[in-house]
Every structure is written in structure tokens, then in C-alpha cells.
Design the sequence.
């Protein structure tokens, strides 16, 4: 049930771009993206619904392709504050009762 | 605003001991859940609840019990702790079943079983 994320880890220099992918073997109702700093709780970034919509949050945006059951998170002109582990979370079915997270992508931004 | 509160933040147990991780939220969220986080495994769903008196299993429920007697509280019980249950546990809540809403997380409880 757990979605698969890629890559597992990425190191960027400030100003560089990155893409994190999330794919599921199950049909998805929605996809969430969260960021977690070391030793802290995950923090919500955005939700994407069925319909292929794309959302943005500052210089972080995401897309959701429901036919392919995939979502991608785009980080442009990365900042040091973007460092952390990124998780996609998926809802299988509209009830949202079972909410599964991917295995995470560790992102490190260096000066 | 308190949000989601978990206690204790740290706990060390011996194999076979029992304990309860507490979770309380003050946002009147109907949906509450417990996750465990292990290195390289992400967050795995243990149990969830869609309202008082209603609970169900997630993907890794073995060794854990839950109950939901009030909207605010969702405790997680370990009846006989095992070293494999060493992990960081997060409680999370959201507005209601089926709602397109974000999950709000507690700060986590780090459990070590010797």
C-alpha cells in the first residue's frame, strides 16, 4: 500500500532545482506532500486532487497524474531552508480512512 | 493553540513491559491516527479512528491496541513490548473522514525497548 518515492536522497547547491517523484500501485483520490526536519514532526506542504491539477507553494510546486497514479514535487531555486525529508502521502478512495506515506526523500541543500 | 499533544516524548521499556502512548487534540477532529517511523521505512500506519467508538487497523497493527472513547483522545497501547517496537511514534489528526484536509501531527514519542 505504501507509495514509492524516488530518488531516496539528493544533494543540491543553493539555487539548483530538484524533482521528487511518488508513484502508487493503487488508484489515488489525492496526494499530499509533507516536509520533515530532523527530530521534528512532518509539516504539510500541499494537497493535490484528482484532475491533474498543479499547485504551488512559494517556489515549490507539484503535479498529480491520476491516470499514471503518480505525483511529482518540483523545488526550484532551492534554499538552505528546503533541506529535510520529503514525504508523499496518498489516499486510496474518497473516505480518506487509510492514508499511506512514501518512504521519503532526503534533500540536502548546501551553500 | 495546543493542536496535537503526545506524551511522553521519550520512554525506555524492558521487553515484556506494557505502556500507553497518549495523544490528545483540541481541534475537534473526527479522524485520528497513529504512525510509526523507522529509518528508511517512512511513516507506517498502525491504527486509525474516524470517530469516538470507531477504530480500525492500518498496515502494521500487530502488537498495538487502540480505543477512542472521546473525540479528543486516542491512546496507543503496547501490551507486551518487544525490541522490534523501538521506533518514533506520531499521532496525527484531520478534520473529518473523507475531508480533503491536511494531517496535523504531534511532536512524536521516541520509544526504546531493551
Sequence:
Amino acid at each position: 500500500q505504501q507509495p514509492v518515492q524516488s530518488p531516496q536522497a539528493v544533494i543540491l547547491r543553493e539555487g539548483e532545482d530538484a524533482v521528487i517523484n511518488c508513484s502508487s500501485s493503487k488508484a489515488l483520490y489525492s496526494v499530499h506532500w509533507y516536509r520533515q526536519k530532523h527530530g521534528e514532526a512532518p509539516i504539510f506542504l500541499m494537497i493535490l486532487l484528482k484532475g491533474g491539477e498543479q499547485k504551488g507553494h512559494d517556489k515549490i510546486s507539484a503535479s498529480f497524474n491520476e491516470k499514471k497514479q503518480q505525483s511529482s514535487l518540483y523545488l526550484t531555486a532551492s534554499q538552505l531552508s528546503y533541506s529535510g525529508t520529503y514525504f508523499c502521502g496518498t489516499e486510496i478512495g474518497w473516505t480518506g480512512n487509510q492514508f499511506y506515506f512514501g518512504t521519503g526523500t532526503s534533500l540536502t541543500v548546501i551553500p | 493553540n495546543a493542536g496535537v499533544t503526545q506524551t511522553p516524548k521519550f520512554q525506555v521499556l524492558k521487553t515484556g513491559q506494557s505502556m500507553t502512548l497518549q495523544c490528545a487534540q483540541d481541534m475537534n477532529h473526527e479522524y485520528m491516527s497513529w504512525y510509526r517511523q523507522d529509518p528508511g521505512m517512512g511513516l507506517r500506519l498502525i491504527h486509525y479512528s474516524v470517530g469516538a467508538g470507531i477504530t480500525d487497523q492500518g498496515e502494521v497493527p500487530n502488537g498495538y491496541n487502540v480505543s477512542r472513547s472521546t473525540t479528543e483522545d486516542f491512546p496507543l497501547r503496547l501490551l507486551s513490548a518487544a525490541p522490534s517496537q523501538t521506533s518514533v511514534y506520531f499521532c496525527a489528526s484531520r478534520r473529518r473522514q473523507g475531508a480533503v484536509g491536511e494531517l496535523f501531527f504531534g511532536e512524536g514519542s521516541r520509544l526504546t525497548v531493551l
Observations:
- The longest strand of chain A covers residues 84-91.
